[in-house]
Recover the amino acids of this structure.
């Protein structure tokens, strides 16, 4: 089989514009806005390179659309097995997208500050339980990158630690300050580093790394921010094909990187972190410690055994087959649901 034949057979989702589910009228409108902005150049995409530095001809295209039916070029690097968005929005376009379209496309609805903060607090308690046995009785500085209202930080604040949060969306800050979380700043990580030099005993970054353009840069900056033996809690979605039944549902244009445990461990070790705990309830949580043995300037350039890559491809194909087998059942369930609603409506009218 030639390489081009092989490539064709790996494309699971061509760019046919079809969404994974029926979109709401609001989602249809925002989808059209995004498509128009891509066409008229208001949103610009840029070619992305794999974190291992492999060349374009070492990528296999897996999908050309996301779950909304928007253009999304998802490839697998045959050198390191990372799956990523090879054609992401450039920095300016991404900032505009998060401001104008993100919430409506993802159907997130109006923000309920209180319940968002409470959900964060519950998750923050889990992070605290993980980290506390390595912190002991020390009082430390805690930084949350992408902090929202500061619900994670509230847990550590109540335990007497000094807390600070940064987020590019400052709408939640006023609610956080009513809870006593004072140091919340509208800053990117590089901006924050320019202004703050103190080392941190714990850095938290949850569901941020998959969105950024430069994950290696972020991991290196966090490494520099940590005190000796400092801790880092990182949480990202789990994109391991063997844990998935519906591959297309996972694809969303806001995600630039689709990590799995294997890739993530390689990446973290090469960026100078030691894995203390790994939790996988649904997403992947890593509690890490700044390793003493990091080589200055060492970057991720992991070449993996080809068997790892072929196994991942086999899993992706299987996940897709499961999806295709399930699809008629999902359609049937939707159809029966509609019939039931009509019958209930007729019964009530009678
Ligand atoms: Zn790679």
């Amino acid at each position: 089989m030639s390489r081009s034949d092989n490539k064709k057979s790996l494309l699971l989702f061509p760019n046919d514009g079809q969404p994974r589910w029926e979109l709401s009228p609001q989602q249809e409108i925002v989808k059209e806005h995004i498509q128009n902005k891509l066409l008229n150049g208001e949103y610009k995409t840029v070619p992305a390179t794999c974190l291992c530095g492999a060349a374009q001809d070492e990528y296999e295209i897996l999908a050309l659309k996301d779950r909304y039916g928007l253009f999304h070029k998802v490839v697998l690097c045959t050198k390191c097995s990372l799956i990523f968005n090879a054609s992401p929005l450039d920095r300016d376009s991404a900032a505009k997208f998060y401001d104008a379209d993100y919430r409506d496309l993802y159907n997130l609805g109006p923000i309920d500050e209180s319940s968002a903060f409470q959900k964060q607090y519950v998750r923050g308690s889990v992070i605290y339980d993980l980290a506390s046995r390595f912190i002991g009785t020390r009082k430390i500085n805690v930084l949350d990158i992408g902090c929202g209202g500061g619900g994670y930080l509230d847990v550590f604040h109540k335990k007497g630690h000094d807390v600070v949060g940064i987020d590019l969306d400052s709408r939640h800050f006023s609610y956080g300050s009513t809870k006593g979380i004072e140091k919340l700043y509208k800053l990117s990580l590089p901006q924050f580093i320019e202004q703050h030099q103190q080392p941190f005993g714990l850095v938290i970054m949850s569901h941020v790394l998959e969105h950024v353009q430069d994950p290696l840069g972020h991991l290196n900056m966090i490494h520099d921010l940590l005190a000796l033996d400092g801790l880092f809690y990182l949480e990202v979605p789990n994109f391991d094909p063997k844990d998935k039944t519906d591959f297309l549902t996972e694809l969303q244009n806001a995600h630039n990187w689709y990590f799995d445990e294997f890739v993530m461990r390689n990446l973290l070790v090469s960026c100078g972190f030691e894995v203390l705990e790994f939790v996988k309830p649904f997403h992947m949580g890593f509690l890490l410690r700044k390793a003493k043995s990091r080589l200055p300037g060492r970057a991720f350039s992991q070449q993996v055994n080809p068997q790892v890559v072929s196994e991942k491809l086999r899993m992706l194909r299987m996940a897709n087959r499961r999806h295709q087998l399930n699809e008629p059942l999902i359609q049937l369930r939707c159809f029966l649901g509609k019939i039931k609603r009509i019958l209930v409506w007729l019964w009530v009218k009678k």
User: Anything to note?
Assistant: The domain at 113-290 is CATH 3.40.50.150 (Rossmann fold).
